Amino acid sequence: MKSFRLSGFATLLIAGLAGQASAAPIVNGDFETPLSPNANFLNYAVGTATLTGWNVVGPVGEVVSIVNTNFVQNGVAFHAQSGNQWLDLTGFNNNNTEGVSQSVATVIGDVYQLSLWVGNTTGGSIFGTTSTVNVQLNGSAFHSAVNSDVNTTGLSWEQYTYAFTATGLSTTLAFLNGDPSGDNSNGLDNIVLTDLGPAGTNRVPEPMTIGLFGAGLAGLAGMRRKRKTSKTE
Asked: Per residue in 103-159, pLDDT tens?
């Protein structure tokens, strides 16, 4: 593969374009802490435990579980989407509308892109057929991410992406179980929140735009080489 080096000006310009989008400070979005035992899981109760960066919310007595990527049950392998752990919103044996929430610093008027992954399995007889994560924004229903992928031997992970405009200096995001009581698996992993800048402004260019920009730089480089050649003739 051929490589090329951009001029200092081009490097600064591209860095400036990319800098218009930045990750907001979601803590522990991939649920890598606290650590669960290898091939096992740990439960965290509503109102009595706080995961790293997250509050466990929902009806009293319910739990969520951090699951190790090597956990296997009823012939189903529960691999994480990112890293070595993921969050099961159905907890242990009994489930309701429990979940997790986190407040993050936001800039009023900025557009934010929220990305999350939902894991679903149709195997094992006790894990249901779909996985639904109900997303709340500042305590109000925002979106429902429903994964209905068929996978009888493992988790199938699907990415869901949404956008909103911040109205305050902090925004509270909640991710709640939307599965029925008999469904014992609802995977959540790799949550990322990205600040895209003020609404109505130009943000990170599309790949084609970047390609055209690169072509323009190549053309300028060619003109420069031509001028240098002309001077030596």
From this structure: 999 999 999 999 999 999 999 999 999 999 999 999 999 999 999 999 999 999 999
CATH architecture assigned to 19-202: Sandwich (2.60)
- Secondary structure E strands in the chain: 22-23, 41-45, 55-57, 63-68, 72-73, 76-77, 85-88, 99-105, 110-120, 131-137, 140-147, 156-165, 170-177, 187-198
CA-nearest of 187, 179, 191, 183 to 58 is 179
Nearest to 15 by CA among 210, 199, 201: 210
Local structure of 135: helix, strand or coil: strand
- What average pLDDT does the segment 198-212 reach? 55
Domain ranges across the chain? 19-202, 205-233
**Cα dihedral 102, 154, 67, 185 sign:** positive
Q: What is the pTM of this model?
A: 0.78
Give the Cα separation of 88 and 94 in Å (integer): 12
